[in-house]
Structures are given as structure tokens and as C-alpha cells.
Amino acid sequence: MKGNENFSMNRTLKMNSPSSNRRASSRGTLPVSLILVAAFALLAGCTVGPKYNKPPVATPPAFKESEGWKVAQPSDSAIKGKWWEMFNDAELNALEEKVSVNNQNIASAAAAYFAARDQVKEARSQLFPTVTVSPSIGNSRQPLPAGSTSTNSAIQSSFSLPFDATWQPDFWGKVRNTINAAAFGAQVSAADLENVRLAAQSELAVDYFQLRGQDSLTKLLDSTVIAFRESLDLTKALYETGIDSDESVAQAETQLEETQALDTNLGILRAQLEHAIALLIGQPASTFSIPVAPLTTTPPPIPLGLPSDLLERRPDVAASERSMAQANSQIGIATAAFYPTVTLSGSVGLSSTSFTSWFTWPSRFWSVGAGLSETLFDAGLRKATVDQFRQQYDETVANYRQTVLTAFQQVEDNLAALRILSVEVAQQDTAVTSAQRNLVLATDRYRLGIDPYLNVITAQTSLLSNQQTATSLRTQQITASVQLVEALGGGWNASQLPTPASMITKVP
């Protein structure tokens, strides 16, 4: 059989006999094709596009607000994975364990990560040839020769079983950059998953401590209602003996009723916080409740570490950094469009007019070839595409640096809040003590008939206000501790990000 080679280097050899196959081989057709494949494979080590280097960011030598802050011992220089256990609250620990399992936002982020990981496998499949098979069976009726008197026409059958393979060698690293981009994107999704997890965990802790703060306020107002009721009884007794007036009784009744209404109103926020916690742990609000208990937890010492460590400890910073790497790979993908695309193709199979002769040597055929394509003119499309991805890379660099600045701001904000609140709580406790002393004096003078009941009301109102402030400050203090842990990354580290190899081999 004689074969001709066209411009695209495609050659098809149909083998009619073993001897013809030997003759084709002796002419060097198959070895030449194999040499071409080997040469193309050697060229497949080139990768175009910029090499990724993480852009530098300025980090301070120490946290500004850490001076005078009580930190953990040097042996505890990093926050542990289950960071909420440092608050020593068994009920909080039990609730936090349910977040990772039942929280639907975490489940959604996990599904997004698994989908991104599958995209890595999809991209990696481009490194290998695509093999297809398209068997066919057909019958055809041949027309009768001119002048024939026969009424029977010839019916011819055909049986074909071709296997086709195509492959585009990754000469310029387009596929490798695509794999890298997908892998970096999956790492972004993994970091986003950890960020969602940390946000849910910290939100649960904040809601829990705010609920306990509401329970403390409820306890305070319950005791205040009892005290105001006793004051009302005293005022009524003095009024009945003629020592005091009905006006003082009305004032005492008004004060008691206002405090009872305020006490009742606390139930609204507590119910909302309880419902929010139910949502975070993936449980219907109608079937969830937390027993009433006042806030007793004090802020624990929190290990801060070095500011430079913050870049590795926060999942949002890690996600932003991986976005830069992904954008850098996109530049390489776009740059590869400037280079020619080579496609290697081959086909092998069986073709015969009789099914019984499929496996005979003359029924076998094969072909192998290579094609090259190159864009000669695109009116600047490829250059504009590369420039676009370079600008998008610069955008991710700016976003990364902004994320780092935000991270330092959040740490400093919460350190400042804790430092100031520690002083304010002490000052407020002193104010409560003074208000209690003032109330005792005002009550004694009222019993003796020296001062009117209005002075007692003023002293009681002042004491209640100061006690409420002290309780709210303690709630702010413990929630600021939780927010500081969140700002420090919650015990996570960038080394926990999955590697590209693990994305290809692991299953959910």
C-alpha cells in the first residue's frame, strides 16, 4: 500500500497483509513517528510565565498593645486547636464540638472545597492522551449494473471497531499552570473552609458568653426586684404609721414596676441568643435550650506569639496568599497562547465486510500523525489577555496586603479593648462599692426620718446602674478575649493546608 504525507503530517496506513506491514515498517514509517513523539516529549519540560514569589509585607517587631498584657507561659506560645477549652467551661466545650459536625455553613464550605479539589483532578487529566472507541455496523445496497436483468441487488455489510487517541503535549506548561491554578484555588477553598469554621466557633463562643451575661443581668435584676419590694413594704409601713406620705409609696411602686419590666425585657435578647446558638450547631431553635446560669468565666491568658507568625496563623491571610499564587499561574496559562499547539493522534482498529474475518490480519489498520497550529493574527487578543491577568495578579497582591493590615488591626483592637476593660472593670467595681455604701446611708437616714424617700430611690437607681455596667463590662471583656483568639487565627496554621498531591489521591 502507498501512503502520502500531507501538511499536517497525518499518515494513515491500512494493512492488507502481514507482508505489507513488514514493508511499511522497513520504510521507517512507524519508527519515525515514535521518534517524533519522543522529541515532543523532551520539549514538554518548558514552562512559560512568571515564577511565583510571595510578595513581602511589612510586619511590626511586636504588638503595640501587648505591653503589660498577661500572656501564657513560653511553653504555651501557640493557641491549641480546641482553643475554647482555655475558658474552662464544660457546656461551651460540648457546644463547640457540635459546630464542626452540624453547622451548615461549614458543610457548604467543605463541599466547595471538595469541588475545587475535583477540579485539580480534572486539570491533571489533560496531561494524558484521550482514547475513544466508536464501533459501527452498517448495511448498504449496491445499485445494479446498467442493462442487468436481475431483480436482486447486492447488499454489502461493514463492521468497524476503531480506537482513536489524541494528545497535546504540554510543551509550554499550559497544562501544568492549569493544574497549579486549580491546586492553588483548592487551597484557597481549604483556607476559606477553616475561616468559616473559625468564624462559626468564635461566633458561638461570643453568643454563649453574651447569653451568660444576660443571665447575670437577670440574676441582678431579680435580686433588685426583691430589694425594691422590701423597700416598698418599708415605705407602706412608715406611711401607715404616719411617718411618710402616700407620694413615697407611689414612688416606690413605680420604681418596682419599672425594674420588673426591665427584668422581663431581658428575656428577649436571651431567647434570640439561644436561637442563634441553635442555628450554629445545626439544631432547630424549637428543640434547643440552655439552662440559666450567670457568667462566671474570667478572661484567660492568651498566647500572642510574634506578629510575623500572624501571616501563617490566620486562614483568611492564607487564602489571600494562595489567591496570589493562583493568579500568577493564570498569567502562565495566558502566555502559553503565544506558542504553537502540537497535537499527536493515532488510530488502531479492525474493519471488515464480514464479522467472521474481523480478527484476520488484513482487517487490521492503524495510523499515527502530528498536527501543529499557530495563531498568526488576533488583533492583540493574546497580549490583552496576558495584561488582564497581570492586572488581576496585582489586584490579589493589594488584597493580600490589605488582609494582612486588617489582621494586625483586629489583634491590636482586641488587645486594646482587653487592656482598657481590665482597668475599667476595676474602676467600676469601686463605683459599685461606693454606690452600695451610699444606699446603706440613704436607707438609714430615711428610716430615721432625716431624709425623704427620694434619696433612697436615687441611691438605689445609682447602685443598679453601676451594677449593670459592671456586669456588661465583664461580658465585653470575655467576648473580647474570644475575638482576640479569632484575630490570632484560633490555633490554625498554614502548614495544615492540603498539598496538591493529597488533593489528587485523597477522597472526602
Q: In sequence order, what are the helices and strands, one letter per element?
A: EHHHHEEEHHHHEEHHH
Global shape: elongated
Question: In total, how many beta strands?
Answer: 6
Strand percentage: 5-15%
As a whole number of angstroms, the C-alpha radius of gyration is 39 Å
Question: What is the residue-mean pLDDT, rounded to a whole number?
Answer: 85
Helical content (DSSP H or I, runs of 4+): 55-70%
Uncertain residue ranges: 1-32
Distance linking N and C termini: 55 Å
Q: What's the story with the biggest beta sheet?
A: 6 strands, antiparallel
Judged by helices, strands and strand pairing, the structural class is alpha+beta
Tally the helices: what do you get? 11
